[in-house]
Amino acid sequence: MVDAQATMSAPAELDLFGAQTGRKFKGTAARVTAGILCFFLVVEFVTRLELVPPAYLPRASTVVVRMVALMQDPKFILHVAATLYAWSVGLALATLISVPLGILIGTSNLAYRMISPLIEFMRPIPSVALIPLAILLWGQGFSMKIILVSYATIWPILFNTVYGVHDVDPIAVQTARAFGLNHGAILRRINLPSAAPFIFTGIRISASIGLIVVVGSELLASADSGIGSYILFVSSSGGQMDSVLAGAAIAGIVGAIINGALEIIDRRIFAWRYLGTPQS
């Protein structure tokens, strides 16, 4: 009877958490909207003072109008699609490489001791600094972008996978072995479920890094398509600072949407992580 009550209470607790999460999401959205509105009003006020000539720093309202126009321009939409395509392919490639490799390193103490210093050495190298080398090796096209994005995003995912798998509770592993589970079953039933939240956190971090790298590579490498390519084109034309700022703002909005979507997925898939946490 007690077990049945406990079984029935778990879904109820998750439903309650889901309702609390929904209210928290609405409250967060309201605060973010209010913050953006206040920021816009402050920037609009400052730019109207014309401390800097409008040719170099246009009014915030002018930039917003230009953003709306760009989002209705099919050519600019193609630039956004090109950036997102390179970003998604690079991130997917990094995930396919780093997750299996991280699991292999994390489950072997010898590999962990040997490769961890290499990861710590390679991880801080900025990917933007490799753009000149990438241009020489792969040109200025799609291949260059996805290779840079993959290099930049592989490290947070690999780092989180390695430490997520390696730091699994040893008592849980020993208990599984005592019940006769083999290495594959332990990996599937204990290591991976325990490491999954860490892996997804690495993907969330890499998603933001990857978008920065792909736009930066398009901008610095004079790519033929992408948001960075558009910003470079209008900035070189002169007298289109509103278009430059609008393109940069749209890139920021795209990044915010991606991060928000991944956060929602995180809270849906790993809802148990947030049980018992204070709701603001």
Describe the structure.
With about 280 residues, this protein is mainly α. Helices cover about 80% and strands about 0% of the residues. It has ten helices and no strands. The two termini are about 35 Å apart. About 30% of the residues are buried. The model is unreliable at about 1-10 (pLDDT under 50).
What is this entry, summarized?
The protein is an all-alpha fold. The protein has ten helices and no strands.
Summarize the helices and strands and which ones pair or pack.
Layout: H1 2-48, H2 60-71, H3 74-106, H4 109-122, H5 131-138, H6 142-166, H7 170-178, H8 183-220, H9 227-237, H10 241-269
- Major sheet: none
Tally of separate helices: 10
Mean pLDDT across the residues is 81
| H/E series | HHHHHHHHHH
Which stretches are low in confidence, meaning pLDDT under 50 for 5 or more residues running? Answer: 1-10
Helix share, percent: over 70%
The radius of gyration over CA amounts to 23 Å
Count every beta strand, where a strand is a DSSP E run of 2 or more residues: 0
| Strand content range | under 5%
Helix/strand-derived category reads: mainly alpha
**Separation, N- and C-terminal Cα atoms:** 35 Å
Shape: globular
What characteristics describe this protein?
mainly alpha, disordered N terminus, 280 residues, 0% strand, single chain
